[in-house]
Amino acid sequence: MNWLIIGITGVTCSGKSTLARSIVSEISANKVSFSNNITIGAVKLVKQDDYFHPKTSTEHIWIPEFNYINREVLSALNMNKMCEHLNEILGSTYQPYQRKEEESVLNVLVIEGYLIFNCTRISELCQLKIDVRLTYDACFERRKTRIYNPPNPPAYFEKIIWPFYLKHRNEYENTLGLQVMNGELSEEVVLRQALDHIVDFVNKK
After folding, report:
1. How far is Cα 17 from Cα 195, in angstroms, rounded to an integer?
2. 127 with 4: CB under 8 angstroms?
3. How far apart are the first and last CA of the chain?
4. Counting beta carbons within 10 angstroms of the beta carbon of residue 172, is it exposed (0 to 12), middle (13 to 18) or buried (19 or more)?
5. In angstroms, rounded to a whole number, what is the distance separating the alpha carbons of residues 130 and 23?
């Protein structure tokens, strides 16, 4: 079964989750202009945030300065479970999407998360890689409007979230084909840019 796998990452509050949901919605509703010989099949969304270890897990790394779990590292997530779930969706007959001259079915899997490209197994699966970015100031301002339970300790963003984000981004910065998008643009503009990128890939593949 052929699947087009799209990975969407980005810093906290960049709009990556909204973008992923919107892409799934648009493709599912046949609102995307693919070639005439393409029929939309299954469209799935997998979110990395659904795989956090329970707070009591011994896998977590605690930050003594804040008495708080470091959620900005892969060990905070059950990546084995996430990869198992992805394998279940793709099935034993999985093949990466290849365009055919005859009519073909396009199955789409969107994987969204802030550390997906830091997991080799997931990064290698993604044929399209999208990274939604914000400046430090824009990210900080958006983060202040969010309500977290439990709330982040003071200075957690400055000392943990942003430094770890830069560290992890540096690990995949030079990934071939990485499409960087400006998360400070409107949701509509970012969605249109992402869909144009996807359509271009599918129609020319």
Report:
1. 15
2. yes
3. 17
4. middle
5. 12
pLDDT in tens, the chain (205 residues): 899 999 999 999 999 999 999 999 999 999 998 988 899 999 999 999 999 999 999 999 999 999 999 999 999 999 999 999 999 999 999 999 987 777 788 999 999 999 999 999 999 999 999 999 999 999 999 999 998 888 889 999 999 999 999 999 999 999 999 999 999 999 999 999 999 999 999 988 6
**Radius of gyration for the alpha carbons in the chain, expressed in angstroms and rounded:** 18
Structure tokens at 156: 């957690």
For residue 144 the two structure tokens come to 């202040």
